[in-house]
Amino acid sequence: MSRAARSAVLPVDKGPGVTSFQVVEQVRRVLRAPRVGHGGTLDPDATGVLPLLIGEATKLTPYLVDLDKVYVATVRLGVVTDTQDASGTVLETRPVPPVDRATAEAALVPFVGAILQVPPMHSAIRRGGRRLYELARAGQTVDREPRLVVVHEIALLDLRPPELTLSVRCGKGTYVRTLAADLGEALGCGASLAALRRTRVGPYTLDAAVPWAELAGTPDPARLWERCLAPDSALAGHPALTLDAAGERAFGHGQPVGAALPDGLVRVYGRDGALVGVGRAAGGRVRPERLLHADPPRPRILPA
């Protein structure tokens, strides 16, 4: 079995009306892969890039979730819903004041940078062992602590009141529908998210993603494997370290190895070029943080 068949990343362009879990299950069934995960949930009505991690690559999920993401969001002014998007029940409608580009762009300025967001009730955050959306469906509303999130950039792509279209580049944990609702409050008319499309997750773009229509049919597993990317694609941008036999043996046993690298995450490779794990460099040493064991069998390394 090839290395790709055991450990890989497959970017998918998720379609509307499909849950992230359904996409995972479809890939697991088609590829007969025992372990498949994803790198950041998309709401059912949202579309766009959903990177799937297969086999040993699932161990890289925390790093992929940390990657920045880019969305194209359509915001509808004057409509407030209980879910902050178009899937919810309309709570109220308000008149929309005149909004020109200058007004909209000025209203967006406070939402760029490190900001506090109150997570929506219709979210997967746990409270007392239950998901918030479970409490919301039971008619309960609980206090939620604001969370610090980072919005790197917002660009106004189009303005056709009562709708405006935004490009949002943000870090993990950011709710774009909450951003839409908060923007509506800033403009004095309320708002909700009318449509959302994720165009990028870290290095993964729509151009490299398998369309959901293709995946939902009867895809050829061999062709699908060909679309898979190497696990270390999730770590693009981090420095690399290639170990010799002694270093690889030590690293595989959880021991730090010496390396003159900047502090932070490091992609760690064996002497044959296979990714063996993720390390964290500090003070001239690289300590193992995640180990991967999906590489082809190699001769056993015996101590000298």
Describe this structure in words.
The protein is of the alpha+beta class and 304 residues long. It has three domains: 7-67 and 203-233, Pseudouridine synthase; 69-201, Pseudouridine synthase, CATH 3.30.2350.10; 238-291, PUA domain (Archaeosine Trna-guanine Transglycosylase, Chain: A, domain 4, Roll). It starts with 6 loop residues before the first strand and ends in a 13-residue tail after the last strand. A hairpin with a 2-residue loop joins strand 8 and strand 9. The chain is built from eight helices and 19 strands. Strands 1, 2, 3, 4, 7, 10, 11, 12, 13 and 14 form a ten-stranded mixed β-sheet that branches. The protein has a five-stranded mixed β-sheet with strand order 15-17-18-19-16.
How is this fold's topology laid out?
Blueprint: E1 7-14, H1 20-31, E2 36-38, E3 47-55, H2 61-65, E4 69-77, E5 79-81, E6 90-93, H3 101-108, E7 113-117, E8 126-127, E9 130-131, H4 132-137, E10 147-160, E11 163-170, H5 176-186, E12 191-201, E13 204-205, E14 210-211, H6 212-216, H7 221-226, E15 240-242, H8 245-252, E16 257-258, E17 264-269, E18 275-282, E19 285-291
Parallel strand pairs: 1-14, 3-12, 15-17
Antiparallel strand pairs: 1-3, 2-3, 4-11, 4-12, 5-6, 7-10, 8-9, 10-11, 12-13, 16-19, 17-18, 18-19
What structural keywords apply?
304 residues, alpha+beta, Pseudouridine synthase, Archaeosine Trna-guanine Transglycosylase, Chain: A, domain 4, ten-stranded mixed beta sheet, five-stranded mixed beta sheet, 20% helix, disordered N terminus
